[in-house]
């Protein structure tokens, strides 16, 4: 009985260890291929291998709707790569640059596909909270624009989630 138990244990260990050993031997020249999907490796190699640099989106225009407490900011972005980019989501928190007050959130209006070497407009919706409205009335009453920073920005580009560590500073309208 103990012999049968020992055989079954060794059979289970072999069923796990043999395939793992086989994969490690197959990819022994480059073990990163076991962990990194080939699609991600292709995007990274195409990105790093290009001589073009990624430029930040360029501000085009903005509008403000006081009823819904939203601002729409329009940017243009040029895809410098030799492959299409799908901008699925953008999200960030908005903070007043001068007073470090949380003002609301920013989200992508609609997903955008940017073909290789193409320039497209990207619409970002800024939604202000009641705290933001109070802050504008008390601290920025005579201003038509306020400088804000986008923090904790997260992007979904072609299924790859990106967390942007930098803060992005934008001037946005607060009155029509």
Structure, described:
There is one protein chain. With 176 residues, the chain is α+β, with helices and mostly antiparallel strands. It has 2 domains: 2-49, no CATH class; 58-173, Immunoglobulin-like. The chain is built from 4 helices and 9 strands; from the N terminus they run H-H-H-E-E-E-E-E-E-H-E-E-E. Strands 1, 2, 3, 4, 5, 6, 7, 8 and 9 form a 9-stranded antiparallel β-sheet that branches. Strand 7 and strand 8 form a beta hairpin. The N and C termini lie far apart (85 Å). The model has no long low-confidence stretch (mean pLDDT 84).
Topology readout:
Elements: H1 2-26, H2 32-35, H3 38-49, E1 58-65, E2 70-78, E3 85-96, E4 102-108, E5 112-114, E6 119-128, H4 130-139, E7 145-157, E8 160-164, E9 168-173
Antiparallel strand pairs: 1-2, 2-6, 3-4, 3-5, 3-7, 4-6, 7-8, 7-9
Work out the number of β strands. 9
Strand content: 35-45%
By CATH's scheme, which homologous superfamily of the largest domain applies?
Immunoglobulins
The rounded distance between the terminal residues' Cα atoms is: 85 Å
């Amino acid at each position: 009985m103990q012999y049968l138990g020992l055989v079954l244990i060794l059979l289970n260990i072999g069923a796990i260890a043999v395939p793992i050993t086989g994969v490690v031997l197959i990819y022994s020249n480059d073990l990163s291929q076991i962990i990194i999907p080939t699609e991600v490796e292709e995007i990274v190699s195409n990105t790093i291998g290009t001589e073009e640099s990624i430029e930040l989106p360029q501000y085009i225009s903005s509008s403000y709707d006081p009823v819904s407490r939203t601002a729409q900011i329009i940017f243009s972005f040029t895809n410098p790569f030799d492959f299409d980019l799908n901008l699925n989501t953008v999200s960030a928190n908005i903070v007043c640059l001068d007073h470090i007050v949380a003002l609301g959130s920013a989200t992508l209006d609609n997903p955008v596909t940017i073909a290789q070497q193409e320039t497209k407009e990207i619409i970002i919706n800024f939604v202000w909270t009641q705290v933001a409205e109070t802050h504008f009335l008390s601290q920025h009453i005579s201003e038509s624009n306020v400088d804000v920073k986008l923090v904790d920005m997260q992007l979904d580009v072609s299924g790859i989630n990106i967390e942007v560590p930098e803060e992005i500073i934008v001037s946005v309208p607060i009155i029509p």
